Amino acid sequence: xxxxxxxxxxxxxxxxxxxxxxxxxxxxxxxxxxxxxxxxxxxxxxxxxxxxxxxxxxxxxxxxxxxxxxxxxxxxxxxxxxxxxxxxxxxxxxxxxxxxxxxxxxxxxxxxxxxxxxxxxxxxxxxxxxxxxxxxxxxxxxxxxxxxxxxxxxxxxxxxxxxxxxxxxxxxxxxxxxxxxxxxxxxxxxxxxxxxxxxxxxxxxxxxxxxxxxxxxxxxxxxxxxxxxxxxxx
Length: 234
Known about the structure:
Layout: E1 5-8, H1 14-25, E2 29-34, H2 37-47, E3 53-58, H3 64-77, E4 83-86, H4 101-129, E5 132-137, H5 150-170, E6 175-182, H6 203-214, E7 224-227
Parallel strand pairs: 1-2, 1-4, 2-3, 4-5, 5-6, 6-7
Helix pairs in contact: 1-6, 3-4, 4-5
């Protein structure tokens, strides 16, 4: 099969960085993305000590051109994609009357349009090869909604729907897709949350979850996994 490859969006911090670094440690060639060149350079500097090879591409996934440029980069640099991790995401919590057109366009593009178009570009190759894994990072807010979560929950619920369809289309060809729906994960995105960081889900938990599903036998699948902190159930 040769060297395994992966595309991880939102790779310069938080969940994406943890997953990309973990796959590099296993020897994957990983295409990493983010908006800020300096963060990508920092990532590449650390990645030099890993077993695999990191390829970077600066792209703003809130824009159509940013998404299209990433798809072009994938086709130029990767002979195939074994794992696609749609991790990049935005977060806005506000009463619906306070949300702006820009909030809507940004979250719809980053949280939903980018995963859709990347999956559309990559799934056919996985089906042709008879293997592959697509991971969509949804949220607990994609399983239940609260006051102020209308836009964010809408995108994360929809991402779960996309995941189900990808699995239904891919499964007959040996391709798996699943969604991870975590609660608070200790990342900059949730700074200021009313939960101590030490009690949050850790980014390493997301990496371990991806590895777990990846390493299941070919005929075992978990369409989605809900992760929450222990205290959330008390």
